[in-house]
Amino acid sequence: AQTVTQSQPEMSVQEAETVTLSCTYDTSESDYYLFWYKQPPSRQMILVIRQEAYKQQNATENRFSVNFQKAAKSFSLKISDSQLGDAAMYFCAYKYNFGNEKLTFGTGTRLTIIP
Amino acid sequence: EAEVAQSPRYKITEKSQAVAFWCDPISGHATLYWYRQILGQGPELLVQFQDESVVDDSQLPKDRFSAERLKGVDSTLKIQPAELGDSAMYLCASSLGTGELFFGEGSRLTVL
Q1: Which one of B93, B99, B105 has the shortest CB-CB distance to A43?
Q2: Which one of B74, B84, B96, B101 has the minimum C-beta count within 10 Å?
Q3: What is the pLDDT of residues B52-108, one digit of tens each?
Q4: Do B106 and A95 touch (CB under 8 A)?
């Protein structure tokens, strides 16, 4: 079974600084997707960024980028120029590219932005 | 912008009572999910529908939980009887099949 591990329960960063959230996963498959989802307090979870395992290039979405290390099964999220609105729970998630579309989530990292 | 609708947002119930949650996915999304999120943990899949059919309910406690998606549109998740350990956020999500899930705001259940 696939597992997703987030070893940082909480992180904090000064506004405008850069922070990196860590995620490792375990799978025997070679074709899969990895995701970072953001869950702000009392609001719905939204997709931040997605990485396809067969793509070597790291995904980037504005201030958000990932460092995808397939051999190491590592998938970290870097947030540049942190803003107050980035404060949220961040979940790393894995999805096998075939069969049903089940997402397996990690336990999350709570990110606090210090003004 | 289309969103996944869930109700109620908050529900407080006593142990052994019945409780139901409703979800209306984004129009056209064939896949619907119910996840349970215990405080401090990541979401755990309870049940997944493809149209009106269940494709994964391996983690659904079937002795007390039931879920249906009549006509392949909206869905209801029921718990009977509720237990203290059921206190959690119940998240509904839908998908077009692209891999991205769209989540509702969730229904927070407190069992006393």
Answers
A1: B105
A2: B84
A3: 999 999 999 999 999 999 888 999 999 999 999 999 999 999 998 777 899 999 999
A4: no
Nearest to B42 among A43, A47, A91 (CB): A91
Domain boundaries, given as residue ranges, for chain A: 3-114
Q: How many domains does chain B have?
A: 1
Out of 2.160.20.10, 2.60.40.10, 3.40.50.2000, 3.40.47.10, select the CATH number for domain A3-114: 2.60.40.10
Beta-carbon pairs below 8 A across chains A and B: 54
Q: Which chain B residues are closer than 8 Å to A6 by Cβ?
A: 42
CA closest to A42 among chain B residues: B105
- Cβ–Cβ of B42/A33 closer than 8 Å? no
C-alpha torsion B84→B89→B95→B97, nearest 10: -60
Q: In the 3-class helix/strand/coil scheme, how is chain A assigned residue by residue? A: CCEEECCCCEEEEECCCCEEECCEEECCCCCEEEEEEEECCCCCCEEEEEEECCCCCCCEECCEEEEEECCCCEEEEEECCCCHHHCEEEEEEEEECCCCCCCEECCCEEEEEEC
Task: Judge whether B75 and B81 are in contact, CB under 8 Å.
Answer: no
